[in-house]
Amino acid sequence: MKFKWEGVMPAMTTKFTADDSLDLPAFKHNLRAQLNAGVHGVILGGSLGEASTLSQDELQLLLRETVAEVGDSIPVISTIATGSTRNALLFARQARDCGASGLMVLPPMRYKATEREILQFFESIAKETDLPVMIYNNPVDYQIGVSISMFETLLKYDNIQAVKESTRDISNITRIKNEFGDRLKILCGVDTLALESLLMGADGWVAGLVCAFPAETVAIYELVRAGRTTEALELYRWFLPLLELDINPQLVQNIKLAEVATGLGTEHVRLPRLPLSGEERIRVERIIKKAMANKPELPDYKKYLQS
């Protein structure tokens, strides 16, 4: 499936039952809400999807079920997050076999690789697959960054097409645009910098709180794209306390609690994660409750949806 690296792409949470099995009905309920809101793609198996606790069989099942549900309406992106190049190549082949439209690839995990090793890792995957690739650049959380000079090397591969920009340096968007133009698409990977990133020229938003608030998230993107910046800013100001739940070590628990509040999920997480408790739970519930009580009426953003 050919597609553009543009728009809102939810980093989907993985739904579990009380007995720790995949909860496919709950997952599909959320997925249909994303589709109805007008998201432009979905990403499976990322950090928010608790990928480190999923087996490859579970991830492949989620991929197949998602592809079957969405058909050709939007792209389905599979995440590769592993410390082994051999496993990365295997996962790329499996993702393609399951019908994935593209890959989001993290640098080698659990090993602080050298620049030469990082380049070889990404290049090996690009050579292995014909799927389009988005590189996840998050030096804050993963202590490994992909520099402009590294991208210059990587962009000799036509299927390396996008970056999930999570450096927290808003000027890096301009830096990338100045250097590569539209050759490297930029998707913001930090919820609290989404509006700023879009205004600076980012092509899309890999979002987290979209899992609980799909319409509000897509509305911000579409309003910016339509030049209705003032309305987007008003909505974003309301949204920001919720978006800050994404830049937190307990982002999975936070967002799943928000999904419960909006009727789009359950609170079940997979060990070693535990549901929020104590003062932190009270704090997060207060943020969600306040946002829900002051939820704005959305403009008719769907008339701007990309075909």
UniProtKB/TrEMBL annotation:
The keyword tRNA-binding does not apply. Keywords: Lyase. One of its GO terms (molecular function) is 4-hydroxy-tetrahydrodipicolinate synthase activity. InterPro entries: Aldolase_TIM, DapA-like. It comes from the Bacteria. Pyruvate binds at V206. Signal peptide: none annotated. SUPFAM superfamilies: Aldolase. CDD domains: DHDPS-like. The keyword Lyase applies. The active site is at Y136, K164. It holds the Pfam family DHDPS. Belongs to the DapA family. PANTHER family: DIHYDRODIPICOLINATE SYNTHASE. This is 4-hydroxy-tetrahydrodipicolinate synthase. It comes from Zeaxanthinibacter enoshimensis.
